[in-house]
Write a structure and sequence with these properties.
The chain is of the alpha+beta class and 56 residues long. Strands 1, 2, 3 and 4 form a 4-stranded antiparallel beta sheet that branches. A hairpin with a 4-residue loop joins strand 1 and strand 2. It has 1 helix and 4 strands; from the N terminus they run αββββ. The mean pLDDT is 95. It is globular. It has one domain: N-terminal domain of TfIIb.
Length: 56
């Protein structure tokens, strides 16, 4: 199940406060500025810096 668009629009990167993108196929939120990806568990975004993954 995809995250609601209104929710994604209200979320921001916890590191730099910029907008997050949501590629549904990857089921994660991405910050293009910090190059970090935040996972989504059971339809709940995990926006913890310690849990973020570096993007290539």
């Amino acid at each position: 199940m995809a995250l609601p668009k209104k929710l994604v629009q209200k979320l921001a990167c916890p590191k730099c406060q910029s907008e997050l993108s949501y590629p549904e196929a990857d089921n994660r939120l991405e910050c293009d500025r910090c190059r970090l990806a935040y996972r989504i568990d059971s339809n709940i975004p995990v926006l913890l810096l310690d849990e973020a993954e570096k993007m290539d």
